[in-house]
Amino acid sequence: MKLRIFLLSLLTGLLPVLAAETLTPLQRIEPEHLKAAHEARMRFAHERQLLTNLGVYEDFRAVLHIHADDSDHTKGTRQEVLEAAKKTGVRVVMFTDHHGPLPETWHGLRDGVLFIAGSEDDDGVLRFPNFDSNRKPLPEGELRFLSQIEDRYDAATTGFTGMEICNRHTDAKIDTRFYDYLNNAADNPDTWRKVQENFKVYPDEFFAAGSDHRAEVFAKWDSETQKNPFTGIAANDAHQNRVIGETTFDPYDVSFRHLTTHILARELTEPEIRQSLRDGHAYVSHDWLCDPTGFAFGAANNLGVYPMGDTIPFLGTTRIAAVTPLPAKLKLIYNGKVVEETTGTNLNFAAKDPGAYRLEAWLTVDGEDRPWIYSNPVYVKTPSAQAIRLPSAAISTNVELKKDIVYTEGKPEDEGKHKLDLYLPNDKKSLPVFFFIHGGSWRFGDRAQYPAVGNRFAREGILTVVPSYRLAPKNPHPAQIEDVAAAFAWVVKHIGEYGGDTNRIYVGGHSAGGHLSALLALDEKYLKPYNLSQKYIRGTISLSGVFNLGTGDSQSSVFGTDEQARKEASPLYHIKNSAPPFLVTYCQWDYLTLPAQARQFHAALQKAGLKSELVFVPRESHISEMLSITHDDDPTAHAILKFIR
Questions:
Q1: What is the pLDDT of residue 156?
Q2: What pLDDT digit, counting tens, does each position of 380-405 carry?
Q3: What is the DSSP letter of 417?
Q4: Continuous segment of H or E residues that includes residue 600
Q5: Is 429 a residue whose pLDDT tops 90?
């Protein structure tokens, strides 16, 4: 048959597209298919690549809809749940007993596993009350998830957080043939013996045989996500109640290993986990196939990188991207329809329209495609005119601006870049000084773009200096840091004439400026020509900076590709215990690698015995961080003011 299709395709000039075979649950538990599935799993584990976490969140494996006090057969099995969680690497367990949450239901951390208590009501809706483990009210109310077979799907208007998109227990209810066969097999000693042997040897493959993709469920979910963000979760619905004879076919550890909700959160606390579920920072995975840790999906444009669950403004070129730790069949689904397919570890797609985009990853096992990963959507939305607010360039009445002060001599064509602007508070006595270095990938930008920043801090009584510097690629590294050092030397020599206190000079910058401020404070060779040292720097403020240039050709027009030269240009490799204190920030929607670099740099500073404060800025992108810094309630501005004062 396949040969016939192939020959027909040659005649018609078309490539054959042959669908993978689909097995029934009963076929999957035949010995040869169990063995083939097991061999595929072992191959996946061997081929899987370890992916470095470059984003904002950690990946916490979670099991939701777990029963431990639901009835006589599960009562008192909380300790078994804990042991199964530890055995399978589960970090979050969400209990949903029908009569819960009970007073004795576990809350909080226990042996490294976070327990959250909820209930399952008569309609199959999962409810997690708005209290944390200390019974303190949480601000956003309870979490609620519709069941997989719930008919009330007008969730966008009823305040639901999301729905179950996978549920192994529901699969058994929809297709009863699997457990009907096991019940009948128990009456035949020979058949029953073979069933027990197969389950003992291949418990994960056996349990997974009854799990399938339910297209109708995903159609309902896609319908909801087209209206409003709506989180999809996996419901383990683990009861340990599939007991036939003396054999339990759904032990907790097998259920936990089979299907999980991977929650992306900054830390393992109940408020953070609940917020991540509410925001859709999660994906569903059939972990029995392969550990998906490292999977990433989201969208990016010039503003920043937005992970699954978040809404990205549809500006410029907005790309949807995914990466998996193992080659898989990747399907990008837009508003319920497949718009891109590829096989591999990466998918990259230019969004053409606003809407909800999600990803599915499938693996071929024993000749059939089995679902592996379901991401939550990333939402692409055209911003309103009101959403794009540029800061005012107006200068406050209590601030004086002195422009175009030459800080060093150079080539005539570089004259414009060898100047700085001063933002002077009216009170000009012994003022703290903020030496701010602009960003722009070392290739763009100028001091003239930052009057809002200069004014923001000057009106708070901080004398603010904003220099320009030569740009690459015409002037590659170290031209930028050399100019910054020259400008800083001018400040040390002259700022007292303008009311600045030379004992309170703080160096800071954003993006490339964050890199340059850190390098100036850590690598002494750039200040040596001016007979200065880092002792003149009271503190360093690196906003979404680059601290490790690594290897390769990223920004090669600035730093080249020589590994040692790039290392020399990296602040991370110049940390010493004589350096000034640091304030390091990163944003929720920062550029890729910058959150990880900020955490790594902060940890290295602390390890060296230096004072360092790490600040996470929520709901801001790499670009909006600087646009919002002028707002009175901006957390970045507050952190800077606190650091300087």
A1: 55
A2: 999 876 566 678 889 999 999 999 99
A3: G
A4: helix 594-607
A5: no
CA distances from residue 625 to 406, 587, 628 in whole angstroms, order as listed: 29, 7, 5
Instruction: Give the ranges where 459-578 is alpha helix by DSSP (H).
Output: 479-494, 512-522, 556-559, 563-568
Kindly report which listed range (165-174, 334-343, 431-440, 457-466) carries the lowest average pLDDT score. Answer: 165-174
Pairing, β 463-467 against β 500-510: unpaired
The phi and psi torsions of 497 (rounded to 5 degrees) equal: -65, -20
What is the architecture, at CATH level 2, of domain 391-644? 3-Layer(aba) Sandwich (3.40)
Q: Which residues contact 26 (CB under 8 A, 6 or more apart)?
A: 177, 178, 181, 209
Tokens 């399952």 belong to: 120
**Crossing angle for the helix pair 189-201 and 177-185, to the nearest 10 degrees:** 120
Q: CA nearest 213: which of 40, 326, 333?
A: 333
**In the predicted model, what is the mean pLDDT of residues 8-33?**
64
Q: Check residue 35 and report its DSSP letter.
A: H
What pTM value is reported for the model? 0.90
Exposure class string for 601-634: b at 16+ Cβ within 10 A, else e: bbebbeeeebebbbbbbeebbbbbbbbbbbeeeb
The domain ranges of the chain are: 30-386, 391-644
Q: Are strands 319-334 and 243-244 parallel, antiparallel or unpaired?
A: unpaired
